[in-house]
Amino acid sequence: MCGIIGKVGAGNVFPELINGLKNLEYRGYDSAGVAGVIDNKILRFRQEGRISNLETEIQKAKPESFIGIGHTRWATHGSPTKENAHPHMSNDGKFALVHNGIIENAEELKKSFLDGKIKLASQTDTEIVVQLMELFYNGDVISAISETCKALTGSFAFGILCEDTPNTLYAVGQSSPLLIVKSKTGHFIASDFCAVGEEAEAVYRLTDGEICALTENDIKFFNPSGKSIEKYPEKAEFSCSAFDKGEYDHFMLKEIFEQPKAVEDTIKSFLKENEIVFPNVKLYDNYIKEKLDKIIIVACGSAYHAGLSGKGILEKLCKIPCSVEIASEFRYGETFINENTLGIFISQSGETADTLAALRLAKKKGAKILSIVNVTGSAIAEESENVIYTKAGREIAVATTKAYSAQLVSLYALALYMGKIKGSIEEEKYKNLIKEFKILPEKIEKTIKTFTPEMEELANKIYKKKAIFFIGRLNDFATAAEGSLKMKEISYINSQSYPAGELKHGTISLIEDGTIVVAVAGKSKVFSKTASNVSEVQARGADVILITDESEKDCKVTAEFTVTVPETLKEFQNSLLVLPLQLLSYYTAKNLGCDIDRPKNLAKSVTVE
Ligand code: F6R
Known about the structure:
The protein is an alpha/beta fold. Helices cover 37% and strands 24% of the residues. It is globular, with a radius of gyration of 25 Å. The site of fructose -6-phosphate has 15 residues, from helix 9 and helix 15.
């Protein structure tokens, strides 16, 4: 996480750095800082908290520089104070540096190179890097960068200024995204296109350890040893329209309402005349039919919950055992995988460090790799031999909604695709599934429209609660877990999710008069089992919100509040059941006055482990 930007060009760069940082704020918002070169001296400005604090300082100070770097921080080493804010500077004041990523051997480097020699001004891993730059510098900045990077382990993207070369902006990228962008008004470095605006003409990506030196008129590239190399630009294709909230109060609500389109666009990208065709997937039929004997789905957070839903449908339609793993656990546990295993890696950002590391591990063990990713060209997509791109468009709110929905339908499609090849889905059933798949976006739209006012009203009743429980069985548990995560991450209400049958093995002791229990129970063979669990919590005083679908409308469960989403096939119902839960958490957080799009302690893209 953390976002970096830098620019060298005609005119004062500070306003552009601030604007760029605002668009990168989704990557972290603990503190922000910028530095430029003024009268051949590096000058920096840093503030705790949001970019707006830094902007106020810049508006007062009115600094002017045609070269500069900027940073928005998600704290990893050291608390979110001003002294830990980037840019960090070398003791002699010659270098200023911004960093996205994590230096894993920071403590060792401190001991072996800096102990006793240099007094550090912060608790960050980044400051150690800039002090090393000072130590290795002998008049050649590229060589100092190369020497410094050789000593580092971890992931990093750096933007660097050096007082001795005041017209040059330096950049390095290793396992953290860093774009070099040629625009009409100068040259940029940025963690993401969105920092740069729509004036980009060409873009280069820095891959493992490459170094770049940018001046107003020139861009030079070097390999990690500092040797000059050629790089070829990609065409810059992106849009900044996602940055407009339009008529909505928050990006999250806008993105909830964008779900029908996100799902429709995703489905259209692979459904061709009733057949699933994945343009970037090369899983051969004989591999699927004869070799594939195990699927592992690996992801974090909401993407992990999408994976839980995926397991249900993959096992059902393909008859292949499937396990779902949390990426940060998977990478350090025992892994029983081989070339007959299909590893599915799900990530909106395509940058999540643990998911990426898990993917590399599975690849090393010989598994076939398929990723489901929203951001084109992201590290996870680039390193996967097979990619399904979700077409959710840019997601700004930290809490995912539309990307999650697009992940769900991608998993359904994958199950249909492999089940068809394997012959494990009957022809008639396949036809029905495809027919229903096509109208899923309409049902999503209808559900969102119907339940927006209802969930707003329900949120008014529950927002003062201190705790909320979410329960469900099998597939419904996946939705309960996602509903619970949405609730806690944006409203800060302590919410927990449990497989419904598990509650009585301990957690039921927390149920008392007025406790809210959200029970997710779509049509399934375990509906009546969840219904019994609902009675058990009601008997202990709980108020139950039942999330079900039309096929169960005559059920005997009397909940305190019932939400009945439209009926769809069992295989797809998670796509509808999750929608009222997204809306409920949104309106609960709104009632509490929470910063919905930028919840505390979170960042949209988690590039540290
Ligand atoms: C929750 C949320 C996170 C992400 C998780 C993985 O609303 O967005 O839990 O799902 O951090 O991120 P990606 O999908 O980018 O790998």
